[in-house]
Amino acid sequence: MGILAGQSAFYYLAAVSVASAILAITRRNPVHSMLWVLALFVHVAGIFLLAGAEFLAAVQVIVYAGAILVFYLFFLMLLDLPAETAGPRFGAHWPLCAAAGLAFAALAWYADDPRLVPAMQPVERATRSPGSLRSIGMALFTQFALPFEITSLILLAAIVGAVVVAKRKNVP
Amino acid sequence: MVPSVPLGACLGLSAVLFAIGLVGFLGRRNIILMLVSIEIMLNAVNVSFAAFSSQLQDPRGQILALFVIAVAAAEAAVGLGLVLALNRNRPGVSVADLTELKY
């Protein structure tokens, strides 16, 4: 892929990501929000592909768009709250929230200003592509074996916690 | 594959997405959409991780992003379980109604 094609694809994906994120947090109907979040996740997966992280893109589509988002949609339909779409979408303090978001975006935008932080040193390029499943798998099962196992503990705790929290009290 | 994504643009996109998620989390009244805003923020951080991983040619950024995705799944499960338990006692998902510590 040429540099120009890659860059134009990146700017398309970035623009659509930002637009769908803004639409997601401003829609009145939560189901519409979920669908815009789905668009956001798919476009972020495209950005991962452009960044050479193929495995991460696949995991993004499978886990985020496939599992987590379907879980949210299922949950919305389980609760079935049509009255929620009638009230105000944002709390009364929304200007403060918008100011906080703008301040954060400005701070993070200027965080790599060379007058504020030392410039990043260029590093020598590895020969193997970092996105290859082989290098990720080798690192995951050797250098990151302990965090990987702890992740399974986190997921187990989440399963047990969700069951305990959502269980009906009067059912033995 | 030559990384064609400029690092600065990726970090800017990550900052903007994180800020949008922050506004949604702080401002929305629907507790489910607050949880979704957290997912948007976590995704923004993943964009940063992928950009640094591509720039530094190092798979560790992608591994951290995988851990972030796992933690996001756990957070969704527990958070929505809590919403379900709250909803059983008092229908509605508006955070303005949650004024009591015990039901």
Features:
heterodimer, A: 172 residues, mainly alpha, Four Helix Bundle (Hemerythrin (Met), subunit A), 2 domains, 6 helices, B: 103 residues, Helix Hairpins, 3 helices
Structure explained in plain terms:
The complex is a heterodimer of chains A (172) and B (103). Chain A has 172 residues and is mostly helical. Helices cover 69% and strands 0% of the residues of chain A. Chain A has 2 domains: 1-82, NADH-ubiquinone/plastoquinone oxidoreductase chain 6, subunit NuoJ (Four Helix Bundle (Hemerythrin (Met), subunit A)), CATH 1.20.120.1200; 132-172, no CATH class. Chain A is built from 6 helices and no strands. With 103 residues, chain B is mainly α. Chain B has one domain (8-91): Helix Hairpins (Orthogonal Bundle), CATH 1.10.287. In chain B, 75% of the residues lie in helices and 0% in strands. Chain B has 3 helices and no strands. Chain B has helices at residues 7-27, 31-56, 60-89. In chain B, helix 1 packs antiparallel against helix 2 (31-56) and helix 2 (31-56) runs antiparallel to helix 3. The longest helix of chain B is centred in the C-terminal third of the chain and has 30 residues, at 60-89. Chain B starts with 6 loop residues before the first helix and ends in a 14-residue tail after the last helix. The model of chain B has no long low-confidence stretch (mean pLDDT 86). The interface between A and B is large, with 88 and 77 residues.
